[in-house]
Amino acid sequence: MDFAGSHILSVDQFERADVERIFAVADRMEPYAHRRRVTKVLDGAILGSMFFEPSTRTRVSFGSAFNLLGGEVRETTGFENSAIAKGESLYDTARVLSGYSDVIAMRHPAEGSVAEFAAASRVPVINGGDGSNEHPSQALLDLYTIKSEMAGRGGGIDRLRIAMVGDLRYGRTVHSLCKLLCLFDGVQVVLVSPGELRMPADIVEEMRQAGHQVLESEALEASIAHVDIVYSTRIQEERFSSQEEADLYRGRFRLNQNIYTHHCEPNTVIMHPLPRDSRDHARELDDDLNDNPNLAIFRQTDNGVLVRMALFALILDVADQVDRHARDVNWYTAGRF
Ligand code: CP
């Protein structure tokens, strides 16, 4: 695809070569994301950051990524702080904010809303999550992490064995990740969820059409025994009609160190898009895994900055200029990465 000026709304728009291009640019962002070098390639550019649902990682890492390329960020969070609360349409909001920004990152609770907004925007829009539909930048950072973790184990994304666990019905990260995996070869996927929260049938069918082996299960321990990656997800309580309904499923599939030790292969990578639900009645990924070297969840969050920097660099067509506008940092940076 031609990235320059493009919206990023769904992983459906990518070919395998596009994903590999994003990853190659992300690799080159490492000295900047890890604070050894500073670049001002986006000096003067403005990111409009509009998050109408709660977010820690996606919102802040999009902002950090833009700052690390030398740009500025203007934010709106929550409907209550936006004129949408006064009845303004997405069309008008997009027309207005795209006059103030060079690129926009947006999260919204309604499926298809970011695409509707993008259709009226005068600048590129990146989908930071639209309801339970898609979260393309998360899927990219997840796949970038999988590639990196598997490389350290002598493998790759082709012929990956992965178990996805939890709320596969409403979890937009797993929807986008499954679709992205369809660009690769010979993947074995085990989908572990309560029957009511199964992966949508069209996504399962898309994976089968791609030649992948897909199994669906409600048995955690047997399902994680022979996989390279366990990708755990939170019960998406915000998509349920009540907390009581979400409580029916919370805590159903818990991975902790004891289960990991007894059922997983020794080097199985543990992933989660975060936030994990650390309340006692949930704990889908227990804190007692925190010292497990195969727990990749914070490598995922760090990789989010690299991947989002790459998306900005490609969309704003500066990927080949980043190093020309760079210098070493002045401050002490050792030990964080
Ligand atoms: N993974 C993710 O989307 O996290 P946030 O909700 O904190 O952005």
Explained architecture:
This protein has about 325 residues and is α/β, with parallel strands linked by helices. The chain has 2 domains: about 150 residues, Rossmann fold (3-Layer(aba) Sandwich), CATH 3.40.50; about 160 residues, Rossmann fold (3-Layer(aba) Sandwich). It contains 12 helices and 11 strands. The strands form 3 sheets. The protein has a 5-stranded parallel sheet, with helices on one face. Strands 3-2-4-5 form a 4-stranded parallel sheet, sandwiched between helices. β4, α5 and β5 form a beta-alpha-beta unit. It is globular and about 55 Å long. The mean pLDDT is about 95. The site of phosphoric acid mono(formamide)ester has 10 residues, from α3.
H-E string: HHEEHEHEHEHEHEHEHEHHEHE
What would CATH call the homologous superfamily of the largest domain?
A: Aspartate/ornithine carbamoyltransferase
Helix content: 25-40%
Estimate nothing, just give the exact number of structural domains: 2
- CATH structural architecture of the largest domain: 3-Layer(aba) Sandwich
Write out the strand line-up for the largest beta sheet, numbering strands in chain order: 8-7-6-9-10
Cofactors and ligands present?
phosphoric acid mono(formamide)ester
Q: Which CATH top level class of the largest domain fits? A: Alpha Beta
Largest sheet: 5 strands, parallel
Q: What is the overall number of helices?
A: 12
Alpha carbon gap, first and last residue: 32 Å
Q: Specify Rg, calculated over alpha carbons.
A: 20 Å
CATH topology of the largest domain: Rossmann fold
Instruction: State which percent range the strand residues make up.
Output: 15-25%
Structural class: alpha/beta
Unreliable stretches (pLDDT < 50, length at least 5) are none
In total, how many beta strands?
A: 11
